[in-house]
Each structure stands twice: as structure tokens, then as C-alpha cells.
Sequence to fold (490 residues):
Amino acid sequence: MFYIATYDIGTTAVKGVLVREDGKIEAVESIEINTFYEEEYKEQDPQEWFEAFCRIGKIFSGKVKARDISAIIMSGQMQDMILTDRNGDPIRNAILYSDVRAQKEAETILERIPEDRAAKITGNNFDGSMPLAKLLWVKENEPEIYDKAYKIFISSKDYIINKITGVPCGDYTACSTAGAMNIEEKIWDEEMISAAQVRQELFAELKYPHEVAGNVKEELTDLCGYAGGTVVYTGIGDAGATTLASGISRTGDYNINIGTSGWVASVSDEILELKGRVFNLAGFTEQTYINVVPFFNAGNVHKWITKIFSEAGSLNYTGISRILNESEPGAHGVLFLPYLTGERFPVIDADIKGCFYGITPDTSREDLVRACLEGVGFSVRQGLELISSDQKSISLIGGGAREEVWCQIIADILGKDVTVYKDSDIMPAKAIAAAALLGEGKISDYNQFIRELQEKGSSVTFHVSWETHKIYNQAYEKYKKLYPSLARME
Fold:
């Protein structure tokens, strides 16, 4: 029996999952990490990531023999700006993806290269969240730090990989969030980097997730718990791991993620050009792209209505599930526009507000609760229709997938069967373990991993009720008129 140590170097915690060769989970560990806030600045200490990695490694090697852990592979937060010296040590805190301090520098870069040209090269809009703009910010505001820099990393996991192997590299998916990679040619782009007037040699080698990055240094065995020489794979940025874990790997496959916010992700063979609405990432294989459409409002709507109908200070999700089970499709004509925090897709409007429409003296709490979740479902349908009219398969993951009535609502609104994966919190770990298995030659391709997921009963399918779909089609036509009417009022 051999094991694969997987990690997610996330924004709130470093999580390790020890996966057996047969896909079963041997151990799970998580260590929270700190984020430092100062006005719009958001930073983390990369050394804290490394210390958490080592602590978890020692726990794993205490449960199984270190020599039986055949590989290490990681996912991690993307779109970070991490600078290291020649020894692989950080020379400043990592600037996180959500930090937009570099808007001025982004505008400077776009003065040197046309905005449309930048979008063509990178596949995305260019703004102050891009690591390339943040690198220019460091050059102009912390020149002594810039002069010391030997490498820049875009994902938290790439810092760890370099630390334990001495090999500076990054995966194509994470690095396509840098604002410096040619997404079609899969190379660091000289034109973008020249526009930023930074050193091209700072950027690390690009690899696919299943390619070997290096081996654990012999001298780190006592520190990290893993045997010297243990193979370390390149891994993939967190959005790529989640996409693979959602069971999609081909054109026409779509995944809906309902967390606090949410997204729709697809795997395709082309870059989608819905300006400002779609984030394009290089896929986990050569000819694929991951197209991500983020929603501001998803699980936050569920939480909000749960709080409304719970006792003060509590969140009674069990009670809300009971209410939903007593509700009826269409909520007796009540519609809810779910824009509690503005929205960026399917509409771009940071100031729009949410609203109920169709309330009468007969409206019940069951109608109000169901209308909220139906509203999110309508929003998802609207977004999917903007992307594509041909969805071959749809999967659903995230905390919202635990609410079974909601899963059925989404299937009925979309008119598509929806596959929901169990244990979605550990599915990304299994997904990146599959990348290591591919690298080891244990599986033939990523599709084999997905087939095995489906065959092993790791999912449940919610089938469309066509009678309910007819009800939702009528409600959907009214729903689409809500935003234009409300926007005029705002």
C-alpha cells in the first residue's frame, strides 16, 4: 500500500489529506493561517504556510511509514504575488489575490500596451489584482525588495514546492492568473512583461499538474517528515483542483459551485470572450481551458433567509430544510432577485439590490424561503445561457449542495439532470491525487479518475421533473424582467 500526501494551501488554512492508492482517505489535518489587513492591503506570511506544511507532514509520517508516502502534490490559492531570494526564502509577505493596491500600476501597464491586446494575450481583463501589476508596485514602492528578488511565484503551493525541492516552477492554471502568461501559447509573454518593465528571469518554469517538479531535499526529512527523494508533483491552482473534483473534463461539461458566493465553471477548447464576466484559465491538459464565471450571490442568500427564520443569533439550517420540504415549486408566484451584495454575473452592477416580487396576503414563509433559492437558480440559468446553449452534463458542489431541495430546484430550473458529488470538502484532494497517479502511470488520463468517481457511488443524480420545469419556465420569463425594472429605479 502506498500513499499520496495532498495539500491545499488555502487562504484560511493549510489542509492536508493523506490518500491511499485505492482512493480512500487515511488522514485529514488542517491548520489555520493568519491574514494581515491594512486598509486595502491583504497579505500572508509564506513561512507560515511552510511551517503548517511541515507540521502536517510530521503527523502523516507518524501515521504511516514515510517511505510508504510515494508522492506529494498540492493545490493552492492563485493570483498571489510571492517574492523569494536565491535560497527560496520570502523577502516580503505574499500579496494576496484579493489585494487591489496595484490599480495605478495596472493603468500604467495598459498605457504601454492596449487593453484589448492585453486581454487577447492573457485571456482576461487586466486590473490591479494581477500579480504582474503588483510586481510593478513593489518595484516602484519597495525598490530594495525588488532588487533582492530572485523568483516570483503566483500560487502559494509553488512557494512550498520550491522550498522543499529547490526547483522554481508553477502550473499553467495558476500562472494564467498572473497577467503575464500567454494563455494560448502557454509561455510567459515578453510583451506583457516588457510593458511592466520588470525582469523576465523572475518568472518560474511552467509545467502541467502531473509533471514532476522535483524531489524532497534529504536535509529536510527531520523538518517536514517526508523521506528525502520523495517525488513532488507540480500540482494545480485551487480553481483547477475544484474543477477536476467536480467531474468535468471535456467541452460541454459544466459545474456549479455554491459556496458563500459561487461560480459556473466549464472545460472547453476555446477562450470565452465575455468581457469582464468570464475568467479564462489554462486547463489541466494541453488543449483545454477552464472558463470560470463568478457570482457574488449564492450560499449567502441561503444563509440570509435562514437567519431571518431562525431564533436571534442562530442559524437553524435544519429548520429551513423542513420549511423547504413543505414548499411548492414556483413559490405561489413569489419571485426573488438574489442580488444581496450587488452582482457581477449575469449582470454587472455593484449597486443593485435584492427584492421580493409577487407577495400577497396568502404568501407564506415557505413561499419566501423557496423563492430565495429559486432566485439563485434562475440567476445560474441566466448565466449558463449567456455562456452556452449546449450543456452536456452539469455537476454541483459546495456547501449549497447539502440542501437536497435546492439541488432539485436547480435541476428543474435548468431542465437538466444534475450530478452532486458527496464529500465535496475532500474531493479536490482526491482530484490532485489523481494527477499524481497519472504522473505515476497508475491511471491513463483524467477521464479515468472521473469515471471511477461516478462508478464508486461518490455522487447522486437529481433528475428533472418536467412538470416542474414547465412551471419554472413561466416564472423564469417574469424573473428576467425584474433586474431591468429595478435597475431603472436605482
Summary: The chain has two domains: 3-234, 247-490. The radius of gyration is 23 Å. The chain has a mean pLDDT of 92.
